[in-house]
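User: Teach me something about this protein's shape.
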Amino acid sequence: MSLNSALAAGASGLISNSSALAGISDNIANVNTVGYKRVNTNFFPNYSLSSGAGDVRYAAGGTSTLSKLDVSTSGLLNPASSSTSIAIDGNGFFVVRPNPQDVTGFDPVLFTRSGNFETDSAGFLRNSAGMYLYGWPVASDGTVNANPSNIDQLEAINLSNIGGAAEATSSVRINANLQASQDVSPAAATYDATDPALNMASGAVTSDFQRTIQIYDSQGGVRSLTLSLLKSNNPNEWHAELHVAPPTDVTTGAGFNSGQIATGVLAFDTNGQIDAANTTLPSTLSFLSSDAPGPLGAGQFQWAAATGIGAQTISLDLGAAGTPGGITQYDSPSTLNSTRVNGAIFGSFASVDVDKDGFVSARFTNGVVRKIYQIPIATVANPNGMATAGGSAFFVTPESGAFTLNVPGAGASGSIAPKALENSNVDIATEFSNLIITQRAYSASSRIITTADEMMAEAIQMKR
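Assistant: First, the predicted structure itself:
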């Protein structure tokens, strides 16, 4: 009985070490595989000893193995050249699926650390194992509906649906100086912004300072706003008008004429800084769309019907006292130092970037950058309890626990490492050491069999 069990123990040693060798071989073969998780083979004994009085003959039980993936250990991050090559710096996984479209409840939800994504022929991001990357779509207002457990809110990230983009101007910053010693024009005595015979927009009154600022409408068209200033009879005060050129680009309500969209005064303190409390030129310009219904009220304006463009609101930044820039009144020649206008004309899709917060942003030839997706990071309580689905992808099991989708960097999830790839977590020196140990253990197990065979042969010879 004991000799037979010794033979069985030797055979189990051969089988178990063969299994260990298979895992080591896979580890060595995949040392350069992106996101690969090493196989860890654990040995455990099969013996069973009874306790108590009496003569107990020992029977060898041999050994068995259990191979598990070391999913929780991260590999080193290496730089990559592709903008769609990404890695996770910390805990978590990318959410991937085998199909990018027409997904049903029967299609598996998988998780991977393999971030070598490239666009396929249809524009979807797919890694080298053929798994498609999923993310939350970003709404037009920049918000993301990030649900931690609803997988149905994710979409396969597609770059082919990105068309051109234009961006309407929403803010204008003016940096200028008005000469404090400017002579007051005789026209200032009769100036009236509401009378086209006595204002600057109509050209009836010559302004002391006038500059044209280009802005962009909702379709990326270039429009011109003219700022006209006339020094007032009141100290440290200038009459101001903003009008659209040509005036036929806008339709205005009561109180405006000649393309005016804002009138008022610019006031300054004794230090030459803008006096916001006494400045009456509006800080917000609200254009109604060209097809806005109904008559315009006093002080309202809209793009002319012939323009066919949408509504937009522009904040007018003239600066503030004590801060650099803006409009000042010093005793030096009047000049427009600079204007800062956002918005852009139409531009074609140029490239894509991914940032550490997981936002996939489209860049256009006009300089506009638009966020289109956010990549979630999935975490589980026990990563080593996940099961492999092949291709460096895993699925959750009762042992791993359910997944949670997080914004990168939130909670227990890691952040996105742009233009980087995660190496395998294989330590080649450790694997070669284990290879030698396994080879010796296999040889030793074979010696058990030959020795037990010789002893059994001796027992058989006793009969002769």
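Now, about its shape. The CA atoms of residues 132 and 318 lie 49 Å apart. The longest helix spans residues 428-463. If you'd like, I can walk through any region in more detail.
User: That's plenty for now, thanks!
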